[in-house]
Amino acid sequence: MHGILFLICISQVLTEIRSDHWNEWSSWSECSRTCGGGATYQERKCLRSSRSKEGCEGERFKYNTCNNEPCSQEAQDFRAQQCAAYNNATYGGSLYTWLPYTDRKSPCTLYCIPKGTRTVVRLAPKVLDGTRCKFNAFDMCISGKCWPVGCDHKLDSPLTQDLCGVCGGNNSCLNNGTKERYHWVDIGLTPCSASCGVGVQHYQYRCRDRLSGNQVPEGRCAKSQKPSEKEKTCFKRQCPPVWKIFPWQACSVNCGGGSATRAVRCMDTLPDGRQHWLHDSFCPQPKPSTVRPCNPRMCPRWYAGEWSPCSVTCGWGEQVREVLCRHEGDMFCDLNAQPVTRRNCTTIFSCTDPDAGQQELSFGISHVKADIVVDATETKHLDLPKYIVSDWSPCSATCGISVRTRYVRCQVQLQYLKQMVDLPDAECTEPKPNLSEPCNLEPCFKDFKWIPQGLTPCSRSCLGGTQETHLVCVHKISNLTQPDENCIHAEKFPIERKVCNEIPCPQRWRIGGFGECSRSCGGGLMNREVKCIQQIDVSLDRVLNLPDLMCEQPAPPTSRDCNTQPCPANWAFGHWSQCSVSCGVGIELRPVVCQRITQDGDPLDVDEYHCPPTERPEAERICNMSACPELKIKELQMKFFQMNPMDKVRLFVGGEASILPGTSVLILCPVNGKDKKKIEWLKNGKPVRPNAQIAISKRGNLRIKKVWPRTDDGKYTCVIGNKKSSIKMTIIEFMHAMQETFLREQYLRGYMNNDSASHVDPYDKKVRPLQVLVSEWSPCSTTCGHGVKKRKISCELIAEDYFEVFPLKVCKKYGIQIPTVMEKCNFKPCTKWAADEWSQCLNDKCLKKDYSYKVRTVKCFNEMNSSIVHDKYCHKASKPPTQKECKNPACQPVWYTSEWTECLANCGESGYQTRMLMCVWAGGELPAGRNCEGLARPVLLRPCFNHCTHGMWTSQLKPKPLECVDESNYCKIVPVMKLCRFKNFQTKCCHSCSSKAQDPPS
């Protein structure tokens, strides 16, 4: 025992000496950057010789941030500066402009991209201290490692900026629903508006909550902050030629039935959005109509009625007529063309002297021209001559060809004669209206008939056609040919049909329609099928295919030129080159040139500005070859526990191990896909230095001779490439091993066997039983209210000197039943007493003078759901009191006396009267017990004389029954005082005494 204590003391002394071999820390170095956050460090040197096996424990360098003020907006990115430093150095024999690239897996390695390519090149193993590990973050690279930096610019600080921009904040500015909480986010583009050809896509924006990240109604975001509408063109595939239909032009007439036209063209859409006019044969048939009828409604017309009779029977009078406008819709008759509704009329020239009237008229006619020209003052009384027309006469016939006539006269009105006079037609300057016009009446159907006139042409030129009687419509008198509609009512003529041209069909060319043009521009070809055939059956359309020489020569052409217009320049590209790598991610290249197709169909390279720059195809692309052999470390997730002394133990990375002191250990790191000689080992994060006790084999395994506590405990990690795996090894005491051995021996000896399965022991490759070990239940987690109790379940393989613990899923894989780890217990509800507030000090509960008590309600509550349960579920001893004494000045005892009884004596004799005395509390009628002791007692007996003034009855007379009522306000306390046994109280308080059980006799 003393020896063990001595070894412990020596070990502690050595530990203190070992940690005390560092020199003092140096002063802080110069900051790696002048702005934007750099790094500075302190260094200390180990005073032990480099040949020493132990060295110094702890870190040699200590880092901190510095110069965290932001750089100016014009300053170049720090990583970009480091890449730009290589612009003057050749790479692969060429000079490049280098652009920064941040690798997600190795952010502190300097990767750059030559401008104009997609090749990522590693230019330095690590970036300069102070370079940001990623964009828009505080983390920085120091000595090739990415250090977490908080928003307070301190290393390893957990503080971050909240959505309000506050370092270490809790988004408090957003909790009250301010505008900063909601913002517009871009959620992508709408689908292309066109399924082919050039379309448009619009950027979409939605309102989002910064706190929850969920989409919210747009009203919560500020409309003024919503990004302006943006769009971009999109192209899926080239559209086939389609009909482009232009709008209808105006109708040729406003009424009466006209026609409207429109342009319809076959258009081909080029990839750049321009349209090219093609021949109609390139578009689907039939072609949309280009003419349609329009404005069928009737044109407005003036209709005039008959003139009324002349207003006088002699001399000059006046005639009138009705004029109507017939129209449809919103069109009206021309007011300038409205017929006159009034005119002068005469029957005889003078009612008294016809000769004088005739002379006057003759004078007027002969001098009217002179009057107009000579006397300028008189012309104001003259109108200009104009043609006057009469109504049309009826049609000359009721059907067929007919005319109607009317009178047309050139007249002028003489003011001084007050009449119209006729003038020669030459005096009217306007065109003379027609005197007659044809009447548009229906034909005289009875005048027409059908006559046979030979046969119709044969319906076929060969293989048997048909022809029938040819009928012609003629006039019955003139025999002139008429339109067929004139004979619609004529008698039908019998029609004969016969077969004709029953001869074989000659050879002929069957010509198909031209197909699509082989090119959309630059001269293409349209092909069609041309065959020499002879038809042999009409109904089945059977034909014989003949050699071309048997048909008329020359044969129709089978192709023709099309789309001869020059082609626009377009991008052309070659085949992709092989991938630059044989595995992993590389680059493929291809040539891209701008070309124009000549009339001969040959491509011609032109300057790139002739081609649309936005449509330039990619000249480089990333290629993903087959995955490079993946580096893997085969881990064994297992806990190894040594129970008895062993010379050597073999362990695997990936689990844990508990080893007894003095045991040699071999730790294996199984690696696939790389040379095992490159395996490196770390202990607690520091490289393992081989010595006499610890060594690394040629296969990369770690050997430790005779492990000891505190010296060889720790975490051992094997590292190869970017893969690593660890095992935690603990050196245990024999007492600890004995405790774990006791339970395992019961299973090993078969005393507590459960379901088991045969399993290969990874330690020595022997087959041993794999079984589940179950510990005792733990105490219940609670004493009430549904608690739980737990036990440990483990999947183990037990040997004589050790046992191995595997994940439970291994036992499940073999079908071993896994017991429950947890069970519910103590179902009794958790309860407690809950008391209400105390009441006021009660006036009707007086205890003694100046004292009463107050009360409260106490109930038993279930703590889980706050429901009221029966009092038996709560602990009676802990129940709070329901009443307590309190001071009440209103509690004063007083004597209470009832009214005097009637005089107890016979009529005309002296007797006595009594009354009841009771101690009660003031202000009420509740008994106060003996609290009135010491108070003056009232008189209870006094003499009286019974005068019997109200009459009396004798024993021979039966008294009249009285009503059973209380005659005093104090009767309610008579039963309480047990006074109903007295007759006088029974009488005075009949109701109160009769409602209570009778008191026993005194």
From TrEMBL:
Domain PLAC: 960-997
SMART domains: IGc2, TSP1
Annotated InterPro entries: ADAMTS/ADAMTS-like, ADAMTS_ADAMTS-like, ADAMTS_CR_3, Ig-like_dom, Ig-like_dom_sf, Ig-like_fold, Ig_I-set, Ig_sub2
Subcellular localization(s) per the UniProt record: Secreted
GO biological process: extracellular matrix organization; proteolysis
Alphabetical keyword list: Disulfide bond, Repeat, Secreted, Signal
Ig-like domain residues: 629-730
GO terms of molecular function: metalloendopeptidase activity
Gene Ontology cellular component annotations, sorted alphabetically: extracellular matrix; extracellular region
Signal peptide bounds: 1-19
Disulfide bonds: C31-C66, C35-C71, C46-C56
Secreted keyword on record: yes
Listed Pfam families: ADAMTS_CR_3, I-set, PLAC, TSP1_ADAMTS, TSP_1
UniProt key word Chloroplast: no
PANTHER family per the UniProt record, alphabetical: ADAMTS A DISINTEGRIN AND METALLOPROTEASE WITH THROMBOSPONDIN MOTIFS PROTEASE, PEPTIDASE M12B DOMAIN-CONTAINING PROTEIN
The protein's name in its UniProt record: ADAMTS-like protein 1 isoform X3
Species per Swiss-Prot/TrEMBL record: Biomphalaria glabrata
